[in-house]
Amino acid sequence: MGQTGDIAQTAGASPAPGVQAIILAGGSGTRLWPLSRTLLPKQLLAINGEKTLLQNTLARTLSVFPARGTWVVTNEEHVFEVRGQLRRVDPGLEANILAEPMGKNTLPAVLLALDRILGENSPEAQSGVVVGVFPSDHMVGDVAAWKSCVERGESLARDGYLVTFGARADTPETGYGYIRRGAALGDGAYVVDGFTEKPDLEMARSMVADGAHLWNTGMFLFRADVFLAAVEKHAPMHFAWWRARREKPLILGYGGIPELSVDYGLLERMKRLAVIEAGFDWDDLGNWAAVYRLGAKDQNGCVVQGDVLALDCHDSLLVSRGGKLAVTGISDMIVVQTRDATLACPMSRQQGVKDVVAALAAEGSPLVEAHVTVRRPWGSYTVLEEGPGYKIKRIEVLPGARLSLQMHHHRSEHWVVIAGTAEVQLGERIFLLAENQSVDIPKTTEHRLSNPGKVLVEIIEIQSGPYLEEDDIVRYDDVYGRRVGGADSPEIDRAQKRPEGE
């Protein structure tokens, strides 16, 4: 098990009773491509406004839950970006990041966080802990109303209910799950009378018309002992994994457990369930049509973001995150442009974006994984140009930061410093390079780039060789806890074969 995943076992505040929150931030997302990519999914993006969806979720959660008791579960690949975003909300939250080595859906992620929340507390103490679970990539329109719903839910959770939250279903959405209300419990709460997952259009229309169905927001509250008893009954394999955590950390057995959602694994099988009808606007921002629906529209009904020239366009979403986007004479369209990809489709076909991503993945396109600029814990790199046998990058290294000590089997590199003063380790030599100075890095030579100064270092890196993908990195030492190992080390595994770079 690599060091990055160990964050989930060693970092964070000591367990505390009372109320605790788990924010699920591990999804990869495909429906907001090309803006959302595997290495920068939608929860890490600012979709509408300056703050990212994750930052908005954190701010909302902290209005009810203490920072010390707020935990963020994410994927190993996203830890460093999540850490930076948490730092801008509350620096103390950095210690409460839990890293999954791989995505296994929501139930294992919640159990991973519960391991930290409950710690060594006895089963009797666990009954006093109420936990809220919240997706990181949803939009909530009225924070005060959301807070009121959560506070009502806490009371029901303490009475032994697993509490869900349902948004008013006012349109027949086929991409949402639905909750059927049963007997009233008072104060906007009802017994849950059943779930329906992503119905067809005819059924969705019927459920909206009967007024008894709510959209499933994916948020829920529970008492820890109630939740674990449900896991033991309905997901015994996961409970056995959880119970063995005293002998072996959960993170070490993560690869052996099946994927399972809380909804399918527990909620749809439990009896003591309550739903609170949300008094707040909610959307899961699951597709570009949702972004259009929630966006500020101009006089022609268009939502325009970025450097866009729109002539005679109506009722369309037009987004540019790179370069000038010029559009004329279209209606009911989605056009989204980034520096390396453009999506154009009718508003009525927005569900087909996932098929575009699947087709790109099938042909091995890097456009699924990352943008041309990839943020790393030490800074970022941008692919400027590439072709057969060569690739050109601009690398930015933050003050005081350093890349891993590494080498490449198949490529050599040439570095030119264009800003700042870089420290270079090349084999046994360590030396400084100022602006306009350069160095050659032969293949199979250990090397490292560092920024010892107080200003940003920028270099141009020219790679050449028969194979230039990012998995041609053997990492020997890393200050950010990423996996390390020599050329024959068993640590050179899937984590070394991601497009994370340097």
UniProtKB/TrEMBL annotation:
The lineage of its organism: Bacteria, Pseudomonadati, Thermodesulfobacteriota, Desulfovibrionia, Desulfovibrionales. It catalyses: alpha-D-mannose 1-phosphate + GTP + H(+) = GDP-alpha-D-mannose + diphosphate. Keywords: GTP-binding, Isomerase, Nucleotide-binding, Nucleotidyltransferase, Transferase. CDD domains: cupin_PMI_typeII_C, GDP-M1P_Guanylyltransferase. It comes from the Bacteria. Belongs to the mannose-6-phosphate isomerase type 2 family. InterPro entries: GMPP_N, Man1P_GuaTrfase/Man6P_Isoase, Man6P_isomerase-2_C, ManC/GMP-like_b-helix, Mannose-6P_isomerase_type2, NTP_transferase_dom, Nucleotide-diphossugar_trans, RmlC-like_jellyroll. It is an enzyme of class 2 (transferase). Residues 306-360 form the MannoseP isomerase/GMP-like beta-helix domain. Residues 367-478 form the Mannose-6-phosphate isomerase type II C-terminal domain. This is mannose-1-phosphate guanylyltransferase. It holds the Pfam family NTP_transferase. One of its GO terms (molecular function) is isomerase activity. Residues 21-236 form the Nucleotidyl transferase domain. Its EC number is 2.7.7.13. GO terms for biological process: GDP-mannose biosynthetic process; polysaccharide biosynthetic process.
